[in-house]
Amino acid sequence: MNGKTDIKSLTPEELKTFFTQMGEPAFRSRQVFSWLHKGVTKFDQMTDLSIALREKLENNAEIICPTIEKRLVSDIDNTVKYLYGFNGEYVESVLMSYHHGNTVCISTQAGCRMNCAFCASSLKGLSRSLAPSEMLSQVLTTQLDSGEHISNVVLMGIGEPLDNYDNVLAFLHILTAPGGMNIGQRHISLSTCGLVDRIYDLMREKLQITLSVSLHAPNDAVRSKIMPVNQKWNVDELLKACRDYIDATGRRISFEYALIDGINDMPECARELGTKLRGMLCHVNLIPANEVMERSVKKSTDAKVKHFFDILSDCGITVTVRRTLGSDINASCGQLRYNQAAGQGGN
Ligand code: SAH
Q: Which terminus of the chain has a smaller tally of CB atoms within 10 A, N or C?
């Protein structure tokens, strides 16, 4: 805490106010916003500002930037996993290349308190939520370091985005603002384990982002076993919130379903899910569960995945099986872990 303003966490409107309060003209804020999104790390690099203004900014504000602690490139695909350091906290981001462009998967919290039974991200609990600047910096630094243009951002790394609601909303606002990275809302996905109260809050924002909901089970008996959040909001409450969200935003919801051997991959689970989702504007993404050393999760066999897929398809549900990327560098879903000290824990 040095009393300086975390300037990269300010939305364009807040930045404008910050400048007017310093007695500077508002248009300067647009210049600075644009510099920040070019990835400058020091006010001195903002060469079209007077030296006096650069000094004033230096005294009143700071530019949060991560250190790159590790960079791992997959031998199987071109997936790159970054370990970023922010002031003693270490989080992971993953760069994935698809035919439609480059996607970066970012972390929203250092750790997680949701404690899903199959996921590595909450093994050490929650340390703290990330600031908007720290989420933005993961996107910016990944783009600059890799030299790849980032067209899509997914909030599916470490943490529960809706458990860091205000910062995530500010981050989305900054990320989509003209004059900055200017990423279209439709190029952003946010994944939640199902914090129903926050899904309603998000619904009122009427954003065009894609909401992904980690469902992983068709009923309370199965879901409560693997996701503690189900004790607070059960499957019916969650699905009702999803239906309301679709009605209010007109956006299709994507349900994630990690297939875990013998837990949620039985044909009757597929049939029950198919019945519950029938007629809903949704898409189901099946993910053969990724194995996490400390969690007793076994991946479903290919035959079971195929059978599950076929049952859902027969129910008229749009369903895909997610391609696993970066499995050799533990960069796949649920394999990202919070590192309390760089070099410990993850790989
Ligand atoms: N907290 C958010 C986002 C982070 S997890 C959420 O729960 O949605 C990103 C996705 O990976 C989620 O769908 C999560 O359930 C899934 N996931 C976690 N562990 C996994 C594992 N071992 N195998 C496959 N997917 C997993």
A: N
pLDDT value at 346 more than 60: no
Name the residue at shortest CA distance from atom 5 of ligand 1: 156
Q: Cite the DSSP H helix spans in 24-158.
A: 27-37, 51-60, 132-146
333 annotated active-site: yes
Mean pLDDT of 273-290: 96
Q: Which of the residue ranges 201-215, 233-247, 282-296 would you say has the lowest mean pLDDT?
A: 282-296
Cα separation, 324 vs 320, in Å, equals 12
Residue 119, classed as helix, strand or coil, is coil
Question: Residue 225 Cα, ligand 1 centroid: separation in angstroms?
Answer: 15
The active-site residue out of 89, 92, 160, 291 is 92
If pLDDT is split at 50, 70 and 90, which confidence band does 345 have? very low
pLDDT at 4 over 50: yes
User: How many other CB atoms sit within 10 Å of the CB of residue 302?
Assistant: 10
3-state secondary structure of 112: coil
Say how far apart CA 133 and CA 20 lie, in whole Å. 21
Q: Which domains does the chain have, with CATH numbers?
A: 5-62 (1.10.150.530), 67-344 (3.20.20.70)
92 labelled catalytic: yes
For 30-44, the DSSP string reads HHHHHHHHTT--SGG
Q: Give the distance (Å) from ligand 1 centre to CA of residue 17.
A: 38
Structure token pair of residue 162: 């809706």
